[in-house]
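Handout, section B. The chain below has 207 residues.
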Amino acid sequence: MRAILFTVFVVAVAPAPVRAKEAVACPAGKLNAVLSCLGKHAGGPARVISPREAPSAIRVVRAGSAQGHWIYVVVGSGEQWTVVDELFYEQQHGKRESSFELVKVSEQPVGDTKVLRVDYRTDSDTNAGDEETTEKREETALCAPARREGCLRISTKCEIKREGDEAETDAYSAKLAINAAGEVSLAFESRGSGKRCKPPAAPIKLW
């Protein structure tokens, strides 16, 4: 068992509206219009899955059909909502089955910036001939739409098991902390080779 500690220093810049490069090209607008656009893109209805007690400036959305669902992050207020990131794609058929579980949506002030935080779990199972691989992750998405494109996504826990002729397990867990100065720290404990579960490489900048 080995522990790795590193600190991320956040550099302040002038705020400017940005959107995710990878996010689906839905125009900003009223929330219902954005949900309709996401539904057309994903091939099925879009609905908000974040709880009512979540911060008012963020919505986590699941959109899709029986073929699969996309998980999006939408931020804004009033008549101006914007898709800022795609977090995950889940499907329950084929050689790869995957699922998404929303854990918590919260808001944290970092200096003069409000950071929106989404904690979630993902689970995937891939079958390739005689080899089966299961992957479980606990992830945190840090979103600051006025300061960065998309959300900074960090896996705080990873476990990948491969069964077959070359069975192995690779895993790590990490404690994530953000202080008032905008410094993000991650303390890792890992086991295995580190080839499949790779901790984020330093330095990481929130913006």
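Note. The chain is about 5% helix and 55% strand. Compare this with the example in section A.
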